[in-house]
Design goal:
mainly beta; eight-stranded antiparallel beta sheet
Length: 272
């Protein structure tokens, strides 16, 4: 349980997987979990980040965010929060107050996306991406649909602005549905099956399983044997040293030490 509001399964970093799917640093899947009504919103209280971006994709539930850079917002089903911590900020993520009072199901995926060295100390940025602003592509043959959160698919551009090339797709396949996804030859890619069961090439991937995709420049075919929800991610690797300590991801140990000092001294700001 992360904080008191997010029951999380972490797929990476572990066993060096994050090195095989750069620029992605972390993948957490929270839920689905039913929460009883509560007077006080559950979630994760004030904590810092520096050197990367957090991407939160909401499947069920309602959340509220605020940070020391002055950003705030709420997210519901289908919405995406793309927060660039960069030079550093402090934020909190809580269940929305109205949602907390009535209770309900929480289901969310969070990705951490690395930033190139040149942008790690850029000013923080916040993208509040609404479900209605994310292109949804109907797949041929009543196969299902694909939402383009970042990057491009079949001529449709996702609304997320990124510092390095990233593709992020929310795919919903009907039973018997198929879709071919092209992976750029220089990108690293993977997919998470949240629910259902798909065949990826010749490999069976079930719910709560992560698959890494080959870097051969060819397309990969996803074929669903039952209704399935799949998050597909790919990006251009950031081939730079990675130094990480908790919520800080930089290039050197010295930069990590500086990040800790900056947070402790209040230079990343505080929430009030």
């Amino acid at each position: 349980m992360v904080g008191d509001g997010f029951p999380v399964q972490t797929f990476f970093p572990q066993l060096g997987l994050d090195a095989e799917i750069s620029p992605f640093l972390l993948l957490d899947y929270a839920g689905p979990k039913e929460f009883s009504p509560s007077r006080e919103p559950r979630g994760v209280s004030e904590h810092p980040h520096r050197g990367f971006e957090t991407v939160t994709v909401v499947y069920q539930g309602e959340f509220e965010h605020r940070d020391s850079a002055g950003h705030s917002g709420s997210l519901g089903p289908g919405d995406v929060q793309w927060m660039t911590a960069a030079s550093g900020l402090v934020h909190e993520e809580k269940h929305a107050r109205a949602f907390s009072e009535r209770g309900g199901t929480i289901e969310v995926v969070q990705l951490w996306v690395n930033l190139p060295r040149a942008h790690k100390m850029s000013p923080p940025r916040y993208q509040d991406i609404r479900d209605a602003d994310i292109p949804s592509v109907a797949l041929p043959g009543d196969a299902g649909s694909l939402r383009v959160i970042a990057g491009e698919f079949d001529g449709h551009e996702g609304p997320a602005r990124t510092f390095s090339p990233v593709h992020l797709y929310d795919v919903r396949l009907n039973a018997g549905g198929r879709v071919e996804i092209r992976v750029e030859p220089d990108h690293q890619a993977g997919l998470l099956v949240l629910r259902g069961r798909v065949t990826v090439g010749e490999q069976d991937v079930r719910d709560r399983e992560l698959a890494l995709l080959a870097q051969d420049g060819d397309g990969v075919t996803l074929a669903a044997s039952e209704p399935s929800t799949v998050l597909v991610m790919s990006g251009e690797p950031i081939r730079e040293p990675v130094a990480r300590y908790g919520p800080f991801v930089m290039n050197t140990r010295e930069e990590i030490v500086q990040a800790v000092e900056d947070y402790r001294s209040g230079r990343m700001g505080r929430l009030h």
